[in-house]
Please model this.
Amino acid sequence: PLPVFPLPLFPSLSFSPSPLSHPLSPQAAMTKLGQWLCGLALLGSAWAALALAPPGLQPPAPLRQALLPLPVYLLVAFGCYSLATVGYRLATFNDCEEAAAELQEHIKAARADLRRRGLRL
Amino acid sequence: ERVSVLLPTYNERDNLPLVVWLLVRTFSDSGIDFEIIIIDDGSPDGTQEIAQQLEKIYGSDKIVRKLFLFPSGTAYIHGMKYATGNFIVIMDADLSHHVRLDFMYCGKQKEGNFDIVSGTRYKGNGGVYGWDLKRKLISRGANFLTQVLLRPGASDLTGSFRLYRKEVLQKLMEKCVSKGYVFQMEMIVRARQLGYTIGEVPISFVDRVYGESKLGGNEIVSFLKGLLTLFATT
Model:
C-alpha cells in the first residue's frame, strides 16, 4: 500500500497501482478497517507479550521500561505529526488570485459574446 | 476521439451559460471534439430554459439536454447513457472549477495514458480562492484524515473535477454505492482497487461566483459518516 506520510510534490503527479492491489492478493480483499485491526492486533500482541510477560519470561529491565509506555508515546507522536502536517498544508494552501481574476475576465467576455449570439439572460 | 462533459445542474441559471461558454471555448481552442450533457434536476429557476437557448446557439450535437429528477450522485449514471464520447468529464456547473486551458486533461491523459485524470486543489499550483482560514483548515484536516484512513492514491478526493475513460467510469458506476460527496471519494478508492491508473492535474477552485457554497455542520457530519463507511467497507 502507498505510504501514509506526506506525499512529495512530484513534477508529474501520478499514481500507479501497487502490486499489492492485484485482485488475487489477500490485501485487496480486506477492508481498510480490517487492515488496521490486523495491524493493531499484531503489534498489540507483540507488545503485550513482551511488556506484560510473567516474571520468568521478561526481557531485560531497560527494554521493559521503554516498552511499557510505547503505545502512548506512539499515539502522542502521531498526534504531533498530524498537527504539524495539517498545519504545514494549511500554511501552503495556495490562494489562486490570478485564477480568480482571469475568471472574472472570462465571465465578462462570456456574457458579451452570449448576448451577441442571442442569449437572453 | 471525443470528450463528453456531464453537467448536473440544479438552479444554475446564472452559471450555466458561463460554464458552457468556457467549455466551448476551451475545447474549440484546442481542437478537441466534444459534447456537453446538461442533466437538470427539475430546477425551478429557469435553468432548463437557459439550456434550451444554449442548445439553439451551439447546436444539438454539442449541447444535449436531459431532465431527470435524481438523488445526488446518480445524475452521472443517467447522463452517461447518452454520452457518445470515449472520455467523460465530470464537473460541477457552478463555476467553482475554473475551466482554463490548464484543464487540458487530454494533455495529461495522453502524457501518461491514464484511466482517470483527477483535478487536485492540494498540489502543484492548484489551490482555492475566497476561502477563509476556517474553511481551509477543515478542508486540509478532512483530507488528512482521508489519506490516513483510506490511503487512496490521490491527493484530492472530494474535488469533483475529473476525466474518465468511458469504460472505466461505467465499471466504477456499477461498483459504487454511495451518494453525493462520498460517491466521488468512493470512485477513486474503487479505481485504485481495480488497478486503474490515476493522474493528477492542479486545478483552481474559485469559490462560487453566483449562488451559495455549501459547507456547514451537516456537510461535515455526512462527510465523516461517509468516510467511516468507506473505511469499513472498502
